Amino acid sequence: xxxxxxxxxxxxxxxxxxxxxxxxxxxxxxxxxxxxxxxxxxxxxxxxxxxxxxxxxxxxxxxxxxxxxxxxxxxxxxxxxxxxxxxxxxxxxxxxxxxxxxxxxxxxxxxxxxxxxxxxxxxxxxxxxxxxxxxxxxxxxxxxxxxxxxxxxxxxxxxxxxxxxxxxxxxxxxxxxxxxxxxxxxxxxxxxxxxxxxxxxxxxxxxxxxxxxxxxxxxxxxxxxxxxxxxxxxxxxxxxxxxxx
Amino acid sequence: xxxxxxxxxxxxxxxxxxxxxxxxxxxxxxxxxxxxxxxxxxxxxxxxxxxxxxxxxxxxxxxxxxxxxxxxxxxxxxxxxxxxxxxxxxxxxxxxxxxxxxxxxxxxxxxxxxxxxxxxxxxxxxxxxxxxxxxxxxxxxxxxxxxxxxxxxxxxxxxxxxxxxxxxxxxxxxxxxxxxxxxxxxxxxxxxxxxxxxxxxxxxxxxxxxxxxx
Lengths: 245, 214
Fold this sequence. Notes:
The complex is a heterodimer. Chain A contains 9 helices and 8 strands. By secondary structure, chain A is α+β, with helices and mostly antiparallel strands. Chain A has 2 domains: 20-145, no CATH class; 147-245, no CATH class. The longest helix of chain A is centred in the last third of the chain and has 17 residues, at 223-239. The radius of gyration of chain A is 20 Å and the shape is globular. By secondary structure, chain B is of the alpha+beta class. Chain B has one domain (44-212): Cyclophilin (Beta Barrel), CATH 2.40.100.10. Chain B has 3 helices and 8 strands, in the order αββαβββββαβ. Chain B has helices at residues 9-32, 75-86, 186-189, and strands at 55-60, 63-69, 97-99, 103-106, 146-149, 162-165, 177-184, 209-212. The A-B interface holds A 8-9, 12-19, 21-22, 25, 33, 36, 41, 43, 94, 116-117 and B 99-100, 102, 119-120, 153, 169-172, 174-175, 195-200, 202.
């Protein structure tokens, strides 16, 4: 017993010191400040060196080069500036981590939301064609995770045709296309068909990204998407009444 | 006739060596050993404060640290802090987490008491008064010397533990509830025992007393 205690104490006191403030706040190593004095109080960090996360270290991301980082930061900042500090506080998003070639269990992904740590990790090298819209998609995931009591998957499923079935998980399907359909049939993209929460995120990101006129047109032509759009609109209003798409 | 004897070269070398040895001995025994030497302690009675009711005096090994509390910034947190100070709850409590030249943390009333330290649980103890809500909405610059309440990863879990930062930490704004700022004695806090390979301290330094000025 004494030996176990002594060993535990030894481990406790020889653990390498990690005094980095960012690490202490969000538990992601190798980050440095990119910009912290922003209008909506979002704080941007970047990977100065590659990092691995998770209990199985299955989340991996590399450090971007300065030129790419400077360029992509402008795009990300422009898009995230659409959100007020009040809204961000309500969805519990405060830190944006910028890195390159983000993957989880060897699957490349645009972003990893973590509402508990108030953090969104973004891959700045994600496909140019969808990059801006995907930022909002990931913001929705933060809101969804933070307000699980508001979003009801079962209610959402009922908007679709009876015979339609989502996949078990977002990576359990080959429906990964992010191109917006020319003619929507209840879904904005192929990826929308993966899971209810991904579908919600796709609707949300289109509502932010498309022009109001385009959204109104879709509402008129697609009754399923009309319901879905109304649902997201109402739920986001529940989170923050002052939010407008 | 007295013949003047000149010191030989080797005698001169031995003489210089002995002087150096003496200096080294003095330095080792009196200067290096006494970590508080050259550290100025402050006597609160000799200082005029604008708001004496908000002044708290933290006494540690090297002297007094004088802190101004900000009840207008974080009213509930400061109220809790004053309650604990006035009940002498912080006396003999360890600085259990110390990051050299960055931060000192104390206030674990349950597992950080002198004579009753629990190294396995230190940092997780409670005061018995319950947790309070985070007060993080006011603008507050976390410059060095700022005092804040510690919490778990979740907000609204502040209790009795507090930290004092020894360098500017702009990222702390909006994260941690501020309660005040050190007016005098930051150098004293830099002398609190730290450990090179761990932020948790084996045989830590303790708070001697923590009192309100009035």
